[in-house]
C-alpha cells in the first residue's frame, strides 16, 4: 500500500485491516514506525479537522512535520505540484498528505512521475476523501459491528461532496443499502445507480445511519447562491428534533463537518444522544495513524533489513 488515493483503490480486506489497526491505536497500541520520518501536509484548500487530525496522528507516530503553507510556497511563483512534492521528497519527507482543488490531481503524480514519497489524498476537488470515509466506516463498525444489511441515508449537497462519493461507493461495496436525500438537482446519475432518492422524513424513519452534508456554497454558481434560502432548505431537508424522534432507537447521526447549524442540522441536534459527530473526529486521529503506518510499513521493513545487514560482522 504505497499510496492511499481513493476508496476504489482499496480492497474490502484492506478497508477492514485499516479499521482493525485504527481500533488498536484507539485501544492504546504504540508504534515507532514514524520515528525519524518526516511528514508534510500540503493543503491547497482550507481545512480544520483533516489537517489538524493528520498533524496529531503524525505526532503520535513519532513523526516530525515539515511546515507548509500554500499561500507562501513557491507554487505562488508558478512551481508545479510535482516539483513541490519532489522537492519535499529530496529534503527528506517520507509521506505527503495532499488536499487539492483539482479532481484526481494524484493521477498525474503517480502515473507519469517516479516518486518515492508516499502520498495520502486529503481530498481532491469534488472527487474523493478516503481518510474521512475510513473514519466514518470505523465509527459505524464500532457501533453496529457490521456493514452488510445496514441502511445508510446521505442527505445534502451530493454532487459537490467528495465524502458522498467516497462513502456511497464503499458502503455499497461492503453490503450496505445507501439512499439519498436533498435537492433533486444534486442527485446525479452516479448516485441513482447506487440507491433511491427519498423524502427526508422517510429516510429518518428507515435508516440506521443518517449522514448529513453541508451545502458547499464555494462550489455553487453565483445564481445558485443568490437563490438559496437557508430557512427553506432547513425546513425541507434539515435534521431537527422532530425528525430525530422519528429515527430508530440505535440509529446514528453523522456529519463530516464543518457544520452549518440551522442549515442542514439544528443546533440542539449536533450533540444529541444519537449524534456521533464529535466521536467521528476523535476516531479520525486513530484512522489517520493507521493510514500513515500502512503506507510507511514497507519502508520500515526495509530499514529493519538494512539495520540487520549492518550488524553482520564479517570474518
Report the uncertain regions: 301-315
Number of discrete domains: 2
Strand order of the largest sheet: 2-1-3-4
How would you sum up the major sheet? 4 strands, parallel
Counting helices, strands and paired strands, the structural category is alpha/beta
Order of helices and strands: HEHEHEHEHEHEHHEHHHEH
Determine Rg (CA atoms, Å): 21 Å
Helix percent band: 40-55%
Enter the CATH topology name of the largest domain. Answer: Rossmann fold
The CATH architecture name of the largest domain reads: 3-Layer(aba) Sandwich
CATH class group of the largest domain: Alpha Beta
Which assembly state applies to the chains in this document?
Answer: single chain
Mean pLDDT: 92
Structure, explained:
The chain has 315 residues and is of the alpha/beta class. It has 2 domains: 7-128 and 281-309, 3-Layer(aba) Sandwich (Rossmann fold); 130-277, 3-Layer(aba) Sandwich (Rossmann fold), CATH 3.40.50. The chain is built from 12 helices and 8 strands. The strands form 2 sheets. The protein has a 4-stranded parallel sheet, with helices on both faces. It has a 4-stranded parallel sheet with strand order 6-5-7-8, with helices on both faces. Strand 5 (151-155), helix 6 (162-173) and strand 6 form a beta-alpha-beta unit. Helix 1 packs across helix 5, helix 2 (49-60) packs parallel to helix 12 (277-311) and helix 5 (130-144) crosses helix 12 (277-311). The chain is globular, with a radius of gyration of 21 Å. The model is unreliable at 301-315 (pLDDT under 50).
